[in-house]
Write a structure and sequence with these properties.
20 helices; FAD/NAD(P)-binding domain; binds flavin-adenine dinucleotide
Length: 549
């Protein structure tokens, strides 16, 4: 039996915010009501889409936003839809603010202090309520500028003055800009699973939808994959079918590792640099003392490192380090790990490493055959059902999703060099088949090829704010050309973003920058050390000028 988590739920429920009541209005009402504001279509209302919309709405001179979502609820997405009290965030509350410039925002919303926030892992349901409250607040302050479209966006096409989005119900909506925030693509069917199995009710292709239905497991269960999704599914089965035996099969046989109960701040150190081999050797050495600290200290630099590596080096990282990095970096909340340990100790959960050879229908169930990792003798097991917990499809050129497949066909999108998702430039704009940028934006996990880590809130919140800022500049013509110092102050997205950031900061701090040194300084910091450090550095520089003045 899985233990419940009164402490966490108690904490999380201190402040009760009702679910966002979504009234699905036809897109025509507020968005075509005679205002001269441009309209941005944001496709997908999970974390990435909601935060992009929130930033756009918060700008007084910002555009109208059409938020398109095919799922049942806006502001939840795949991650924060689960109502299961055992499904906790896998990131500490203290690091889950949705707003990059207000690190304590989520804790304030929860009503807990920093020390509590360093310990607590709230339910995903609670976090979904937080996202919805952010959206509701932004929409309230920007009356008439947000419309919801409850439909599936199936196509995006260029028009003479902008874009048009095709909806599954048959309508087309004309907009000035489009942001794709569609999350991950559905996992592909694993090799070896027979057509008969996939058509049968013993096969679950979408674990999240299955969890939502609260259906009971049929007998023992094979999970294909052993990552965070497999853990969620195992815990759900453990609650509803306490006697079911669960086997999670994955190539490497690695299960996610746990967070330490108390967060130890990783020591600050020089950013690692050099080849994959050199960086991994350094991390392995450090990991001998404390593996969490070793990973955590690398974490802020992984985007810069990734950018600095050639495609061959990146592929080397994916081949040699990815499985190990994923289980060490994306960790389980201690309570979740304890539940999993209980299942394991009771002989009800196990992880096996190997390659699935076949999964076929057998009398009364399914028969799985796999080749164990490093072994040659095939293993067999009879189960009642199997659930696909393999990771999402990352090769967008194999996508069946009509929206992505259509963009690829039209040459508006392509896969990044490592086939981790969509190819995007530094401003998160899609790069088309011939290498050109047409001006479609993407936010979220599908853009990870650019920086590798773009999976979790701490990374996506920065990207969503950046994309909104760039879009605002584009749509309102707010280009701080006088401060821009790049190859082309009007069209280069990095220069535009820098210019805008500087003009905002200088206005905020009430200082005047007459020369181009701030922009130049920020550009080189950005290129050498990445965005976060560049922002910090320039902010400190501006503050110092203010003090001097
Ligand atoms: C189970 C789970 C738990 C997680 N836990 C954490 C955590 O604790 N902390 C953390 O930092 N990160 C966590 N993550 C990572 C998570 O991916 C990010 O935090 C973030 O939620 C991603 O949001 P997203 O909006 O990009 O994607 P999603 O949440 O997947 O949202 C995309 C939305 O787009 C909609 N959509 C897709 N295609 C279309 C279309 N064509 N038309 C209309 N709508 C469309 C989908 O219905 C969906 O609602 C978790 C992920 C999962 C899957």
């Amino acid at each position: 039996m899985i233990a419940t988590r009164h402490a966490v739920r108690g904490l999380a429920s201190r402040r009760v915010t009702p679910h966002l009541a979504i009234v699905t209005k036809p897109a025509s009402s507020p968005l075509t009501a005679g205002s001269s504001r441009p309209t941005v279509a944001v496709i997908g209302a999970g974390f990435s889409g909601v935060l992009t919309a929130v930033h756009l709405l918060r700008a007084p001179d910002g555009p109208r936003v059409l938020l398109i979502e095919r799922g049942p609820r806006f502001g939840r997405g795949a991650a924060y839809s689960s109502a299961n009290a055992g499904h906790l965030l896998n990131v500490r509350g203290a690091n889950m603010s949705a707003l990059p410039d207000a690190p304590g925002h989520f804790l304030e919303w929860l009503g807990v202090n920093q020390a509590e926030g360093e310990r607590v892992f709230v339910t995903r349901d609670r976090y979904g309520a937080y996202l919805q409250s952010l959206l509701r607040e932004a929409a309230g302050a920007a009356a008439g500028r947000l419309a919801f479209e409850h439909d599936d966006a199936v196509d995006v096409a260029r028009t003479s003055g902008g874009w048009s989005v095709g909806l599954a119900m048959g309508r087309r909506v004309k907009v000035d800009a489009v942001v794709l925030a569609i999350g991950n693509l559905a996992p592909p069917a694993p090799e070896g699973v027979s057509e008969d199995v996939m058509k049968s009710d013993r096969w679950v292709a979408d674990p999240w939808a299955w969890i939502e239905t609260k259906a009971a497991a049929t007998g023992d269960v094979l999970l294909i994959g052993s990552g965070l999704t497999a853990v969620d599914v195992a815990l759900s089965i453990g609650e509803s079918e306490p006697n079911a035996q669960i086997l999670a099969l994955s190539r490497h046989g690695l299960a996610p590792r746990a967070h330490a109960p108390i967060h130890a701040v990783a020591a600050r150190r020089e950013p690692p640099s050099g080849s994959v081999r050199k960086v991994l050797r350094q991390i392995r050495n450090e990991a001998r003392e404390d593996w969490r600290a070793a990973i955590d200290s690398l974490r802020p630099h992984i985007q810069e490192l990734w950018r600095s590596w050639s495609v061959t080096e990146r592929q080397r990282f994916l081949r040699h380090a990815r499985p190990w990095w994923e289980v060490s970096r994306h960790r389980l909340a201690p309570e979740v790990a304890a539940d999993l340990d209980r299942l394991t100790a009771a002989g009800l959960f196990a992880v096996a490493g190997g390659r699935l050879v076949s999964l076929t229908l057998a009398p009364g169930g399914l028969e799985a055959v796999w080749r164990p990792r490093g072994g040659s003798a095939l293993q067999r097991r009879r189960v009642g059902m199997a659930i696909n917990c393999a990771g999402p499809l990352s090769d967008v050129e194999r996508a069946r999703d009509p929206l992505i497949a259509g963009l690829i066909r039209a040459g508006l999108a392509r896969s990044d060099a490592c086939r981790l998702g969509l190819d995007v430039d530094l401003a998160s704009r899609l790069i088309g088949a011939d290498g050109t940028v047409e001006g479609l934006y993407a936010v979220g996990p599908l853009t990870r090829g650019q920086v590798y880590e773009m999976t979790s809130v701490p990374d996506i919140r920065i990207q969503a704010a950046d994309v909104a800022r760039t879009l605002l500049a584009e749509l309102t013509g707010r280009v701080a050309g006088s401060l821009a110092d790049g190859p082309d102050g009007k069209t280069d997205p990095l220069t535009r973003a820098l210019g805008l950031y500087l003009s905002e900061r200088t206005a905020e701090l009430d200082v005047e920058i007459q020369d181009k040194s701030a922009s130049r300084r920020m550009r080189s910091a950005w290129e050498l050390r990445g965005r976060r450090e560049a922002l910090d550095e320039v902010a400190a520089w501006l503050e110092a000028r203010k003090t001097d003045a």
